[in-house]
UniProtKB/TrEMBL annotation:
Protein name as annotated: Metallo-dependent phosphatase
PANTHER family cross-referenced by the UniProt entry: 5'-NUCLEOTIDASE-RELATED (PTHR11575), SER_THR PROTEIN PHOSPHATASE FAMILY (AFU_ORTHOLOGUE AFUA_3G04160) (PTHR11575:SF43)
Alphabetical list of InterPro entries matching this protein: 5'-Nucleotdase_C_sf, 5_nucleotidase/apyrase, Calcineurin-like_PHP, Metallo-depent_PP-like, Nucleosidase_C, YHR202W_N
Top-level taxon of the source organism: Eukaryota
Pfam families listed in its UniProt record: Metallophos (PF00149), NadN_nucleosid_C (PF21953)
GO biological process, one term: nucleotide catabolic process
């Protein structure tokens, strides 16, 4: 695509004199100003402390905001305005505020992914935000050129503010250098609080060959970390960890906190987490807390801290104001819906005051970049919405049912010898994590494809695998961790088992990020899980009561209670959105909503073609069995019958997982060498082909 490639020549975009300005205020994104169904009367205010934080994470390129969802319709320019106002408020109050981002800036939006290389425009737009502490995510490391871009553009721009202790990059000349600084010690502007900050990435293993990820366990034993903690060289009022690590269920954060606690028994630790795309807040001890602030720029996390004591050596601190003094340590958190109404409410600004020129300029750049990339080009119209976790799979509203039934069958290899096999029996396996977002009824533009599945993944295949073997693959990839929860009365007893399971097998890294919380049956998931098909927006649940129940009732029983309670409760008048229950309770969301439904998804789904139902049903029996039963019960074919074979096609991304599955089946040696390149369009291309073939309309209703 020439336009896409041309972007290399013309960026940085030059913004002309601001158009449509009213007193220097520019509204370039008309949808950003829409506040349908939004009402500030439902917004809960933020509580300020001595030290306050704004947190974004897993933005995945959504800098233009959500053009079809008013609740999340602000854009990165608005965030820049918001930051400015919140810094000013902090100054007025004589307290401090730090702006944090914890990574994953690629893969999820045309703005970041429609350029060559991906991120070519979006990284320059991202870095216009005045961020105090940031780290990278796994999506900055999947591809070598993106890792290099992250190092060249983001790490260099933010310099000492860009922290990551456990990732190195191998430069073109072969030198190995850290991706960012390992730590930052500094004092805050107003209260001169001493901050010690570290950046960490979870134990990620699918990184590009020009990068090295060291496990968290090993990193905290390294001399620099141990010496720094042991030496007590720095005054430290609070540790601030900026991490791309989930705040629940993953073991890494506990490892870091435990190591710090060996030397600093009760110095506050505030952690910013990431990766699983949820709103969550967890308690490690009475002075160590962690927040995760959702995904896709739907959420800005807020944390405030009171009761910080200056370290003894420092005498420069001014006496704290009335609201700031608190002998006991106190932390609050909020999840802000990313729309202008919420941002104006919290920054105490009117629509005339909110947009500052620097914010307007960034909104304009986003708008121009979208135009340049033709992201609004219409390919067709979607007649109904199809959902990822909001609909049960399989069902008529599930995007995965659409993919399995209609999209994957379009896959063709561009290689002649392989495309000749098109009518042979074939099975196409795709990981559900490769689908990032819901497909909403309405226009399908060039951008939509990137929102749904941004990855340019290749396809691989194993030709002619015996069907009885091929049908065992998906059940293994989908090993159901929830069966582990059934093993004991309370899940916590199985937590270690669950972590061991994840860490050794890792299949869960194939599924949608939110399902990584299977280890704890994440509250929101069972709260919103319905037994019927489709969406059920019942509201009116007494969240406080459920929170109390959760302390005494095993979660599997709680699930039944919640389902029953939901059925009995009244319809709510609130708009649908996030309803979060975290370790602090039920008041975290700044805007009260009726909860969205949530359904667990398998790690992977498969589409089978050119194979008769009768023939396959005999061999598919094993699919319904859980992992434990696979080994013993799959031998269904008669001894003397010639076994049918099938081509097994899969996203190359899942190759390591497929190899593990083959290993579990004790046939890895036999089949690893048979894996071949298949080629063909990735999901984004197939989806576009389908839309243009079946849903090509010149206008949308
Ligand atoms: N080329 C790729 C890269 C990633 N995925 C999927 O994304 C998941 C990771 O995304 P997070 O936002 O959770 O970091 C990964 O587990 C895969 O499911 C992919 O399909 N192709």
């Amino acid at each position: 695509n020439a336009i896409v490639e041309d972007t290399q020549l013309i960026f940085p975009l030059q913004v002309g004199p601001l158009a449509n300005t009213q007193d220097g205020i520019l509204d370039v994104n008309p949808l950003a100003a829409i506040s349908k169904n939004l009402s500030s009367s439902n917004i809960r205010p933020l509580e300020w402390g001595q030290l306050n934080f704004l947190h974004t994470t897993d933005t995945h390129g959504w800098l233009p905001g959500h053009l079809m969802e008013p609740s999340y319709s602000a854009d990165w320019g608005d965030y820049i305005s918001f930051i400015r106002h919140m810094r000013q408020r902090a100054d007025e109050k004589g307290v401090d505020i730090l702006i944090i981002d914890t990574g994953d800036k690629h893969d999820g939006n045309g703005l970041s992914d429609a350029t060559l290389p991906p991120g070519y425009l979006s990284q320059d737009i991202f870095k216009m935000a005045d961020i105090d502490l940031l780290t990278l995510g796994n999506h900055e490391l999947y591809r070598a050129e993106i890792a290099k871009q992250e190092f060249d553009v983001i790490a260099q721009h933010y310099a000492e503010k860009y922290l990551v202790a456990n990732v190195d990059i191998i430069l073109d000349n072969g030198t190995i250098v850290p991706m960012g600084r390992k730590y930052r010690h500094f004092q805050t502007k107003n209260l001169q609080l001493n901050i010690m900050s570290f950046g960490f990435l979870y134990d990620f293993f699918q990184n590009a060959p020009n990068t090295i990820v060291t496990s968290v366990v090993d990193t905290v034993q390294q001399d620099w970390f141990q010496d720094l903690l042991r030496s007590r060289e720095f005054d430290i009022d609070i540790f601030v960890l900026v991490t791309h690590i989930p705040v629940r269920d993953f073991p890494e954060l506990e490892v870091i906190v435990n190591e710090i606690r060996k030397y600093y028994l009760d110095t506050p630790i505030q952690i910013f987490g990431a990766h699983t795309h949820v709103r969550d807040f967890t308690i490690f001890d009475d002075k160590a807390y962690a927040i995760e602030s959702g995904r896709f720029l739907e959420t800005v996390g807020w944390v405030s801290v009171k009761g910080l004591n200056k370290t003894e050596k420092d005498t420069s601190i001014e006496p704290l104001g009335e609201n700031q003094v608190n002998s006991t340590y106190n932390v609050t958190r909020k999840y802000i819906d990313f729309n202008r109404d919420s941002l104006m409410f919290h920054s105490n600004t009117t629509s005339d005051q909110f947009v500052i020129p620097a914010g307007a300029k960034v909104s304009e750049l986003i708008h121009e970049a979208r135009e340049l990339l033709n992201l609004t080009e219409l390919y067709g119209c979607i007649p109904d919405s199809y959902y990822t976790t909001r609909a049960k799979y399989p069902s008529s509203q599930s995007i995965f049912t659409l993919i399995v039934d209609k999209i994957l069958p379009l896959l063709k290899s561009p290689i002649e010898a392989i495309s000749a096999r098109f009518d042979n029996p074939r099975m196409i396996i795709v990981n559900t994590g490769s689908v990032r977002f819901d497909l909403f009824k309405g226009p399908f533009t060039k951008d939509t494809g990137f929102l749904i599945s941004p990855f340019k993944n290749d396809w691989s295949f194993i030709p002619d695998m015996p069907v009885s073997l091929a049908v065992k693959l998906l059940p293994i990839l989908n090993q159901d961790t929830r069966t582990l929860a059934e093993l004991g009365l309370h899940f916590d007893q199985n937590k270690q088992k669950c972590h061991d399971y994840y860490n050794t097998i890792g299949y869960s890294h194939l599924g949608v990020p939110t399902d990584l919380h299977d280890c704890e049956l994440y509250y929101n998931q069972f709260m919103h899980h319905d037994n019927d098909e489709g969406n059920d927006n019942d509201g009116g649940i007494d969240l406080e009561m459920i929170f109390e129940w959760s302390k005494i009732i095993p979660r599997k029983f709680l699930y039944t209670l919640v389902s029953t309670y939901r059925m009995l409760s009244k319809k709510s008048q609130l708009s649908v959105g996030y309803v979060t229950i975290d370790d602090f309770g039920t008041e975290g969301d700044d805007t009260m909503h009726t909860p969205l439904p949530y359904y667990h998804l398998p790690n992977a789904v498969q589409s089978i073609q050119n194979f008769s139902f009768e023939e396959i049903s005999r061999f598919l029996e094993g699919q319904k069995l859980n992992y434990k039963k696979v080994e013993s019960e799959i031998e269904t074919k008669a001894e003397d019958e010639e076994e049918p074979t099938i081509d097994v096609i899969f996203y190359s991304f899942i190759t390591p997982f497929l190899l593990s599955a083959l290993e579990e089946l004790e046939v890895r040696e036999q089949y690893a060498d048979k894996i071949q390149f298949y080629g063909g369009k990735s999901l984004i291309g197939l989806l576009q082909e389908f839309v243009e073939g079946g849903w090509k309309f010149d206008y949308c209703e």
